[in-house]
Design a protein that fits this description.
By secondary structure, this protein is of the alpha+beta class. The chain has two domains: 76 residues, no CATH class; 97 residues, D-Amino Acid Oxidase, Chain A, domain 2, CATH 3.30.9.10. It has three helices and 14 strands. Strand 12 and strand 13 form a beta hairpin. The longest helix is centred in the first third of the chain and has 14 residues. It is an enzyme of class 1 (oxidoreductase).
């Protein structure tokens, strides 16, 4: 038996933003970066291998980003001393916005989860099976008065609106059916969605690990 906890990631992100606002931070939600802003500067450049190379020539440095409010369409510039690329599956598109020659470093992958009526899972206990027919882990857990079952792990293209396939849903239903009673029928499904560790969209699987720095 393994003890675990659950987290509502959307609430966590909102809490972080509201806490920052309480400490006088200017927050901008629902915005997307459309351009990396740079300016010439004499600085040290850092290669992909994280080795320092001193140069006396002006080096373009990141000083902010041009962003678009996706609710209003308004564009504006955010200036910053430090820019962090924490964009999950969109990591490569931001890196290549900075430098078009940057190679891709991640393989997006989708995980499908299904929601079943709550009577398929105890209120305080779930089950994990690492021995499925194709080697993927399968589980079902209590979640918000329902039963959460998953997951799949398939390579994909990055998109704002991913959608599950019927084959992926059937895989989950077939793998958990031997553990559950009454027998699961397609009509028992409450909801199907895509996520990784509770966050909507895709996750990234790094080909190899290295740090990528851009002068700022």
């Amino acid at each position: 038996m393994v003890e675990e906890s659950q987290q509502e990631d959307a609430r966590m992100c909102l809490s972080i933003a509201l806490t920052a606002a309480r400490y006088n931070a200017a927050i901008a939600n629902y915005v997307e970066a459309v351009e990396i802003i740079k300016q010439p500067s004499r600085t040290k450049s850092i290669s992909l291998k994280s080795t320092l190379e001193t140069t006396s020539e002006p080096v373009p440095t990141v000083s902010g980003a041009r962003v678009r409010d996706r609710l209003t369409g308004k564009e504006f510039t955010i200036n910053a001393r430090c820019v962090i690329n924490a964009t999950g599956p969109f990591t490569d598109s931001i890196r290549q916005m900075d430098d078009k020659e940057q190679p891709t470093i991640c393989q997006p992958s989708l995980g499908v989860h299904i929601i079943l009526p709550g009577y398929y899972s105890p209120t305080k206990m779930g089950l994990l099976d690492p021995d499925t027919r194709d080697g993927r882990v399968i589980f079902f857990l209590p979640w918000m008065n329902y039963a959460l079952a998953g997951t799949t792990d398939t390579e994909c293209n990055v998109t704002d609106q991913p959608s599950p396939s019927e084959a992926e849903v059937n895989f989950i239903l077939e793998e958990i059916s031997s553990y559950l009673s009454p027998e699961i029928q397609g009509r028992c499904l409450v909801l199907v969605f895509l996520c990784e560790n509770g966050s909507s969209g895709a996750r990234i699987v790094p080909f190899s690990f290295f740090n990528h720095f851009t002068p700022v």
